[in-house]
Amino acid sequence: MARMAGLFGRAEPRAAARAYLLGLLSGTERKNCWQLAEHAGHSRPGPMQRLLRTARWDAAAVRDEVRRYVVDHLGAGDGVLIVDETGFLKKGRGSAGVQRQYTGTAGRIENSQVGVFLAYASSRGRALIDRRLYLPEHTWSRDSERRRRAGVPEDVVFATKPRLALQMIEQALDAGVSTPWVTGDEAYGQDPGLRAGLEARGVGYVLAVSCATRVRINQGRTAIRAAEAAVRLPASAWHRQSAGPGAKGLRYYDWAWVQNGTDEHRHLLVRRNPTTGELAFYLCWSPRIVPLSELVRVAGIRWCIEECFQAAKGQVGLDHYQVRNWTAWHRHVTLAMLALAFLAAAVDDARPTRRADPNRPARSGEPVDLTVPEIRRLIGALFSPPITAPNALLHWSNWRRSYQASARRSHYQQRLPAPSSA
Fold first, then answer.
1. Can you give the pLDDT of all 422 residues of the chain as single tens digits?
2. What is the per-residue DSSP string for 7-36?
3. d(Cα 266, Cα 278) in Å, to the nearest integer?
């Protein structure tokens, strides 16, 4: 907070932001304004709600500082930028950007918001460094009244998810984030605009694509589907390499690469599961010639953003918000990103200095290194407020139930039949 304090012009939002962050780092069950206010010892959720809705501070400036903080603490020469999206399940139609749409969070079409995120991952750790709320084109971007009610700024126009990803990548590069690679899943790998934008900036990429993607083999003379190119590969083309450590050890796959076109810097990378035979495909480009092992490393690091989403939602309440407004969404998500970045930096600071040994977990009986959940648990205990007095507990119970009764009364009144004119 000493680093961030100058971004909150007045003492009140600065104190509220500190209390909000401590609440996100606490063991509070649901990290929404009501429970964060109770955790902070407030008598009402008003200070937390004002912090997200009306207080004067710039979430974009805090986001920029989060990005600098992550690079300062986790930056390394092997750093990779990762793009992906995650869903936030919602009820109703009022939340900015909400509509029925597919989200991987539920694995099906649900009423949800979708946020596109950028993560930075290196050998020192990983954290989220940018975010964009996706605004659907037909149901939101063209509906001026709906935009007005949700507080969507007038200068926000429709952009595809890959376009939002490219905007975040370009902002990170312009801000001085040094990285030779970007990776992402099929939703981003299939977009030629994103790939062209990265090549124009001289940033290499390893982006997942579908089996139907067409590539050009035989020095560009033959255009075929990626799946067919994989079938034509001889047995000698496959190499078993690790895509990095997983929860149960190193993740070994069979890998092969094929030059795509006439450019030695452009390849189709194929991953084969040695047990099931399942294939995955990546389009790759780099400004310099690199070995297969480097492409495998970058492809394997893509899963770090899934770990970031899991930690952000499970540890610091990324999806616990109960706000509908555009500005409030970005403010809550930015503060959750800051809390996660702090935990990731603390994990790196606490890691013992030792020689890298991928087989150490199989040989050592020492406790595992401190993790994000463990440090969050320790910090939550260290900064936990004193035991709450019974009258304070009863006050919040009465407040919640009174608010819920008011909401229930409003809903029931809306459903009462209209009085008869007879």
1. 889 999 998 999 999 999 999 999 999 889 999 899 998 989 899 999 999 999 999 999 999 999 999 999 999 999 999 999 999 999 889 999 999 999 888 889 999 999 999 999 999 999 999 999 999 999 999 999 999 999 999 999 999 999 999 999 999 999 999 999 999 999 999 999 999 999 999 999 999 999 999 999 988 888 999 999 999 999 999 999 999 887 777 899 999 999 998 888 999 999 999 999 999 999 999 999 999 999 999 999 999 999 999 999 999 999 999 899 999 999 999 999 999 999 999 999 988 876 666 666 656 667 778 899 999 988 888 877 766 677 777 776 777 778 778 877 787 777 777 665 55
2. GB-SHHHHHHHHHHHHHHTS--SS-SHHHH
3. 23
Contact 257, 284 (CB under 8 A): yes
Token pair in block for residue 96: 């900015």
| Model confidence, pTM | 0.89
Interhelix angle 326-350/11-24, nearest 10 degrees: 60
Q: In the numeric block, which tokens belong to residue 181? A: 């690679």
Neighbouring C-alpha atoms within 13 Å toward the C-beta of 413: 6
Please report where in the chains the tokens 């540890």 appear, as a residue. Answer: 315
